Amino acid sequence: MRLTHLLLYLCLIAMILTGDIGVADARRQTVAFNRRVVAMRLPGPYAVACADFNLDGRMDVAVANFLGNSVTVLLRKGTNSFESGFYGIGAGPAAIETCDLSGDAIPDIIVANYTGGSVSILRGRGDGSFEAAVNYPVPKAHHAIPVDLNNDGAPDLAVADDDANRMSILINQGGGGFGTPVHLQSSGRPHAVAGGDFDRDGKQDLAVTRLTENRITLMLGNGDGTFRNGSSTPVGRSPHHVIAVDLNRDGMLDLATADSDNSTVTILLGDGNGAFSQSAQPVVGSIPLYLAAADFNGDNNLDLAAVNLNSANVSILIGSGTGTFEGAINFPAASGASTLATGDLDDDGKPDVAVANSNANTVSMLSSRGVIPLSRRPITRGIVDGN
């Protein structure tokens, strides 16, 4: 009997160390997710985004397929079923975003095509289908975001051109069409970009990751689509992605970067004047590539989710509301986990996580079970498979 107890104890310790079971916080509770596959046999799904594409009040999923040069749109038909549609885009898509680009209250799709050197726009029709892609030439486009850079109320596009060592700006011409890209020379392989008014002057700015320089630089907007140089702040090695959110509830935008080469997330707190200071650098899984923010435990503080390529899992960092985070709780995804997106994908009012698994050729969903008191929680793995 003692040997049995010892073996159980050693197994529990191993599960905690490997992240298969969540570690208790001071309140003796943790977050939990159920996992299930929602799409299979996709051609290299690399990027994922969530929006209500057919305006039925349910969150849908769009997937950019790197090997298929296509977008798969997964329309929710119930809690556990999806209907798919396929659309051709440029070659080698690396990132996908959604936004109403034309002002018709219908979400459109933006895709950065790294191999093909273009940005594809898929105009939504409001019924879950999309018009044929319109492609804009942007060599080495790695990440594209919608952001109003000239204060006309219409979202423009900012594109990180990675190997081309430049940023590209596409101004919205109305109706969701864009003008000729304006290329701004840069350095350090600009890999990802986030938008926001970081100096509170009423004009949108850009925060850009410099992959080979291990830093974030600001491009301060002038409100007419042009920029001036802003601050430069060191982060972890090879920052692959960046998001801009208020992590300490002071009303000013902060930054979080996924540092792929040292498996950390760097937290930078903004002072509202365009400068940042590091508040934390929590460790996550191996090779984090992408981040998302949501309140996973319902305490009204933003938490972070990081998807980790090498360890094929998702790390959840519970936020304190002060810019610091508890240790990562890890949940398995699948081989080639490359990007994630958050949204309520099962209509229970809790944020779920969609993950693109490029090697497994699947999209998986981590469905939130909310907060579970550890005193009532059975000793089990940190995730329950949907089947």
Structure description:
This protein is globular. With 387 residues, it is mostly beta strands. It has one helix and 31 strands.
- The count of helical stretches stands at 1
Major sheet: size, sense and barrel closure? 5 strands, mixed
Overall mean pLDDT score? 90
Across the major sheet, the strand order is 28-29-30-1-31
Counting helices, strands and paired strands, the structural category is mainly beta
Distance between the termini: 33 Å
Rg value: 20 Å
Contiguous low-pLDDT stretches (5 residues minimum) are: 3-28, 374-387
- Share in β-strands: over 45%
- The count of DSSP E runs of length 2 or more, i.e. the number of strands, is 31
Instruction: Estimate the helix proportion, in percent.
Output: under 10%
